[in-house]
Specification:
Helix content: over 70%
Shape: globular
Distance between the termini: 11 Å
Mean pLDDT: 85
CATH topology of the domain at 88-299: MetI-like fold
CATH superfamily of the domain at 88-299: MetI-like
Oligomer: single chain
């Protein structure tokens, strides 16, 4: 197992290097001058040239990339131009809020998606299967940001059951109950599409397993249907479902950008949008690389979990 994990970690290195190249190249292609954006009304040609020299932006792009990459390897993400604070500090502070939102959404989509897929497969072509199929298609078809806006309109504006935006009340609150009230709508909106994808693929995996000989043998031996479905079949189907969970974890993490804007959630997605508008290059690059590294790490965890369920994968 140790060798397999080490192999997966080594294989992640070129992926992360490729991400740094792509992120740096995209930021270099964005029109506009960061020094001009930072200086604002003081952006005279002399001031712009001086600031570019101080920031190292007057050097060739290849030199800028390798300087940034060298600092990145040492854990130095640079300093935010707009916020005047270390990029890593800002990213970690914002990522904690994103992790709460994405974590809650992932738990919801995993539990609801797997449960819906199992029930749909166990009741194939029945009323429950048809109802779940319709719900899944609707969930996959509706964009999460649109669903979020509709939820705000219904549950916050008209019914006034839940707060409109933010993570906590501005005055008062701050406890777990306050967090859950603010978390309910964005987490649900973010999880809907992933729930549909997981449900459909869980159903397909379960149907394939339910046709296998060991399931017929278990039923012939008198094992209860509930134990056959939830114990034997689901465990075997999880080998195929776990990779889907890893992909959807990345989808939920990246999709949090839209939801954070809709619900004004103080996470890393909202930070990246603000940083792009301000041309805060180092903050954007650091934030994207950090999120990409988390996504790669999640996939390694998924591969390890899959190899535990099916040791043949290690070879």
């Amino acid at each position: 197992m140790g060798g397999y994990i080490l192999k997966r970690l080594i294989s992640a290195v070129p992926v992360l290097l490729g991400i740094t190249v792509i992120v740096f190249a995209i930021m270099a292609l964005i029109p506009g001058d960061p020094a001009t954006a930072i200086l604002g009304s003081y952006a005279t040609p002399e001031n712009v040239a001086r600031l570019n020299r101080e920031l190292g932006l007057d050097r060739p792009l290849v030199s800028q990339y390798f300087i940034w990459l060298g600092n990145l390897v040492q854990g130095d993400f640079g300093r935010s131009f707009a916020l005047n604070r270390p990029v890593l500090d800002e990213v970690l502070e914002r990522f904690s809020a994103t992790l709460v939102l994405a974590g809650a959404a992932f738990v919801l989509c995993a539990l609801l998606g797997i449960a819906a897929g199992v029930v749909s497969a166990a009741r194939q072509y029945g009323a429950a299967d048809k109802a779940i199929t319709v719900a899944v298609i609707l969930g996959i078809s509706v964009p999460s940001f649109f669903l979020g806006m509709m939820m705000i309109l219904v549950f916050a504006v008209r019914l006034r059951w839940l707060p409109v935006s933010g993570m906590y009340e501005i005055y008062g609150g701050g406890d777990l109950r306050d967090l859950l009230r603010h978390l309910a709508m964005p987490a649900l909106a973010l999880s809907v599409v992933a729930t549909g994808v997981i449900a459909r693929l869980t159903r397909a995996a379960m149907l394939e397993v339910l046709r296998q000989d060991f399931i017929r043998t278990a039923r012939a031996k008198g094992v209860g249907e509930g134990r056959v479905i939830w114990g034997h079949a689901l465990r075997a189907a999880m080998v195929s479902v776990i990779p889907v969970l890893g992909i959807q974890a990345g989808f939920v993490l990246s999709g949090a950008v839209y939801i954070e804007i809709v619900f004004q959630w103080p996470g890393i997605g909202r930070m990246l949008v603000d940083a792009i508008l301000k041309r805060d290059i180092l903050l954007v690059q650091g934030g994207v690389v950090f999120v990409a590294a988390c996504y790669v790490f999640f996939n390694i965890l998924v591969d390890v979990a899959q190899s535990v369920l099916d040791p043949r994968i290690r070879t």
